[in-house]
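Bench log, entry 3. Co-assembly request; chain sequences pasted below exactly as received.
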Amino acid sequence: MTARAGAADETEKGMSTTKSIPAQQTEEQPTSGENLLEVQDLQVHFPIRQGIVFQRQIGAVRAVDGVSFGVKPGESLGLVGESGCGKSTTGRAVTRLLEPTGGTVRFDGEDITHKKVSSMRTARQNLQMIFQDPYSSLNPRHTVGTIIETPMKLNGINPEQGHKKRAQELLEIVGLNPEHYNRYPNEFSGGQRQRIGIARALALKPKLIVADEPVSALDVSIQAQVVNLLQDLQREFGLAFLFIAHDLAVVRHFSERVAVMYLGKIVEIADRETLYSRPQHPYTHALLSAVPEVDPDGASNRERIRLTGDVPSPINPPSGCRFRTRCWKAQDICASEEPPLVQLLGSAAGHQAACHFPEVKQVVAPEETPSAPASAK
Amino acid sequence: MAIELSPQPVGVNPPSSFLEVRDLRVHFPTEDGLVKSVDGVSFSLEKGQTLGIVGESGSGKSVTSLSLLGLHKGTRAKVSGEVWLDGEELVGMSEAQMRALRGQKVSMIFQDPLSALHPFFSVGAQIAEAYRVHHKASKKEANERAVEMLKRVGIPQPERRAKDYPHQFSGGMRQRAMIAMSLVCDPELLIADEPTTALDVTVQAQILDLIRDLQEEFGSAVIIITHDLGVVAEISDDILVMYGGRRIEYGSVHDVLKSPEHPYTWGLLQSMPHLGGDVNERLNPIQGAPPSLINLPSGCAFNPRCSFKDQVPDGRCTVDRPELLPVLGSDKHIAACHLTGDAKAGIRSATARGTK
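Structure output for the full assembly:
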């Protein structure tokens, strides 16, 4: 099995290296081979059709519109943003549950953007997903054992100790009783179901797990249990995570690097320390200041930014900077020119923001920033 | 027991405070046994004040709020105890009397605005209906009132949007429309059941600001039910922590969040990651799962999940249910735990050292 996957790997590699990387890329992602997952200019558009017999496309929901990022082995990248910003769509396009409209997704050195379903199955051995809703993501007619064994059987993996032993081992790893092997999902609570989902994702020993809001459907006290479990697994098995969530505090706790999305685009990406302490994009600022704090005394002396209005429609996003309709700093240039996602001078390594007027606390010559895309090459 | 702090004798004199709940019990008979969703909850609330009710799912917080509105009437639920609102007792009230009160004096913001709004009627018509039920107003007047309310809650172009249907609204706008509907008759008591749980942080902040502004303007009493301690800290004056259908801690926001007295409250506070916290520190979750309401653990309902029960002599935690006792040095802070004040102080300083 693995030999076949390896062969496919090789051919894919050979094919992709002959292709040249598009030159008009504004994002300066390091295109070195060290990234386990590399997403370049990913686009996912959902067509809007009209007509009953002769359907024609009258527009598109641009759910993800040019997103680039990389995830290194063993690293966790957090993806945050409001609902409708395209973070879940990004996750689904990466695992190829959705067909990307444009751009490339490279996983483990292999271009999986438009792989066929059959060959995608082998790639998915290393690329698993944990879903948001632990109630709808488990088949109610299958026992826990069947749920966990199915991925192994489909991929022709026959562990030495047998499928059942391996499934029970996985149940134990995620903190469930191995004797519950024959139970049905309805016999478990939400937190336990999420653990079953995690065990299923681990069954194939993946390298990367896309976790789409893995804890947001759970109670507060259970959330912490699941976050701790994921963290233990990450350390134990050296897993890489694409951690999608809207809870900024959970993302900060779990992910070393965090990307903030707004209306189908990444507006800022940085390591967590930098992003949470020195955000540059106004949207990140607003997002952080909106998080309610438990501290009843400290709550009053935080700077508070209240965004007005709603996220614009992704069918017809604003011209230029997509955040300009809600931004308090917006000027004419924001409507005419789209700010590229670039690293600003004087900011920490890997800290990129897409804004014409970024918040920079340190003194930096602002004249230099427009030339950054050219100079960074 | 919890009742002992509620004024005795039960059932005669109307209280002085605006809202007073005394020993409220809501039990549901089921095939598996009696589900004691709410079991002896008491609290009081003054006008202009906000009470936050915190607890996990299944702790009885939503059932409590529904019984304040009399929404368990006509169901299998067995409701006992008293709810006094402005001198009137609600539990024994007839459905017709209750109907006159609902929407007028007490109103509610539900968690999921998409299922709480009727998909068939325009948003404006639904708000106008709530107004016409309680006021002798023509359709035109009611519609004007609806538009005014939509404007009040910050919906742009209210005249046009009033004619829209709920599915044409975004999540945040639907929640605003719900708030407009619940405020259309200037209620004196507003119950918000997880008003922001389905919303994004930015919209959540807008909605919390809105509730706060409107409360200042109308001077209503607000009960906010949530599992998010951050939300409670932002908006409430007092906090009631519920577990297994009972009160386990009650006090001002400052007291409860700064010096929580119950291990469950500590657990809730410690299990949440903070924006300013240390990322390398492991979260400290509460072990186990919430208890079954049919068969609550004996003694303290929290004892199977409590890490400090061995610090109480003679295993009292599994035998005696702790009473709600006042905490030394504060006026209304009460908690139900067998741990002595010294033991708690010891644990608190130990955990504080651990986090440093």
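The longest strand of chain B covers residues 33-45. Chain B touches chain A through 46 residues (CB under 8 Å).
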